[in-house]
Amino acid sequence: MRYYQSIYYIANSLLGKWIAQTNNSGSIKEKDNRSTEDAELIRLRKSKQQLKMENYKFQEAPIITKLKQSKTNLN
Prior knowledge:
By secondary structure, the chain is mostly helical. The protein has helices at about 1-10, 10-25, 35-75. The termini are far apart.
């Protein structure tokens, strides 16, 4: 382990984290090592952001429609 730390300048804590993750889930990817609660929280945050964007579009739609109507009335 020290051999790789010296060659790649990897901190002992980081290498230990990677080894523990590999032993637990077989992967060092963050996504594969999340708890179910963390994954659910991320999913809910993404859903909330999507709903915010959709809500904003619905709020802006009447304004855009009015602007288009006023342009056609002027012509």
